[in-house]
Amino acid sequence: xxxxxxxxxxxxxxxxxxxxxxxxxxxxxxxxxxxxxxxxxxxxxxxxxxxxxxxxxxxxxxxxxxxxxxxxxxxxxxxxxxxxxxxxxxxxxxxxxxxxxxxxxxxxxxxxxxxxxxxxxxxxxxxxxxxxxxxxxxxxxxxxxxxxxxxxxxxxxxxxxxxxxxxxxxxxxxxxxxxxxxxxxxxxxxxxxxxxxxxxxxxxxxxxxxxxxxxxxxxxxxxxxxxxxxxxxxxxxxxxxxxxxxxxxxxxxxxxxxxxxxxx
Amino acid sequence: xxxxxxxxxxxxxxxxxxxxxxxxxxxxxxxxxxxxxxxxxxxxxxxxxxxxxxxxxxxxxxxxxxxxxxxxxxxxxxxxxxxxxxxxxxxxxxxxxxxxxxxxxxxxxxxxxxxxxxxxxxxxxxxxxxxxxxxxxxxxxxxxxxxxxxxxxxxxxxxxxxxxxxxxxxxxxxxxxxxxxxxxxxxxxxxxxxxxxxxxxxxxxxxxxxxxxxxxxxxxx
Lengths: 264, 221
Hints:
Radius of gyration of chain B: 17 Å
Mean pLDDT of chain A: 89
Number of helices of chain B: 4
Helix content of chain A: 25-40%
Oligomer: heterodimer
Number of helices of chain A: 7
Strand content of chain B: 25-35%
Low-confidence stretches of chain B: none
Structural class of chain B: alpha+beta
Strand order of the largest sheet of chain A: 8-1-2-9-10
Radius of gyration of chain A: 19 Å
Order of helices and strands of chain A: HEEEEHHEEEEHHEEHH
Largest sheet of chain A: 5 strands, antiparallel
Largest sheet of chain B: 5 strands, antiparallel
Distance between the termini of chain A: 15 Å
Helix content of chain B: 25-40%
Largest interface: A-B, 8 and 5 residues
Mean pLDDT of chain B: 93
Distance between the termini of chain B: 36 Å
Shape of chain A: globular
């Protein structure tokens, strides 16, 4: 995986037709703390794991409000994420100013992707080391996109990025077909469940996760920690009531999914 | 005298008034939009909510007012993203002044009055000229009817009046309801004599519980 010959410059191709610097940037995303996004026809939920550098420091902000109808969750170099959030906010404000209407989500992700692509084709730049889950609502409905450091973007029903995100993806792969009809609260619950999968045994509390939602009639906002804790508690009570047998198959799933490579 | 063909402004008339109280602020403006001796519409709002506790009313050229309002709204959104809170009224006042002076050599043809609550919850009113010179006052009026209204306010609101030097109080000791009644009275009087003022007056009151709005009919002639 680590070919040292062709990976010095982002503008150097490898003989196999790969840009290693871009792939290394995507590696940075995989190392960041997890973020998940889920979408129904009327709402989109983002949830992230808050990693703190140490017990003494505050948690890093990984969810940003971009506009009333758009928010992003990031994984990877949070400094790059902050800068890109500022760019996205500016784009939304400028569009609103000129057209007196909210910027459609698909237009925003294209601009973001183009901005990321520029950094893959200039020798004096480096790719952004952050992946963004863009959640938004516009005239065409609710959308969830994933923007990659490579400049690619895809639309998803549900997605997870960051470390141990495969566990969350496996969890959501089993359920995503029903997401479109989920109510707002079911979506929030499943987002928190998906985050719990990435914690792999660590205790889930409202202090280590951030959940945000945007939907029809509901501008983008973070969900109060109290409400998150209530959802976690209600889930925990149900689980304690169910047999420990539920836990065993879940663990087997995670082991096999870790082995499978993540393709882009 | 050569004919000037580059006059890009238009005065749409109208009057704005604001009064600051100890825990409230009243901002009012009529709703008539005119050009020359014609009325374009009887139902045009000159008042814009810029922040939670900050409202701006302006008379003058409404095209420039629209542009100015949009500009300030966008700047406020940026402020909120950066500081995670709403702009205070005195902060917005400074921003408005800077925005106006930025176009010192092609001004916004607007005569603005900003009203709201400061960080202590006290009413504040800021009055401006077209290029951003501003001052915090206890009450103010701008527009075509201002000359008819200011002397009455000087007389009725005694303590914050600059006629008593130094001003005894920064804000009027009147109650909120008394201030609103006074505003309705002065507008009714200004409507009698100023052709550009009339139709309706939109009164906005800001206090600790929020912002409320009422409309009062005025003479339509």
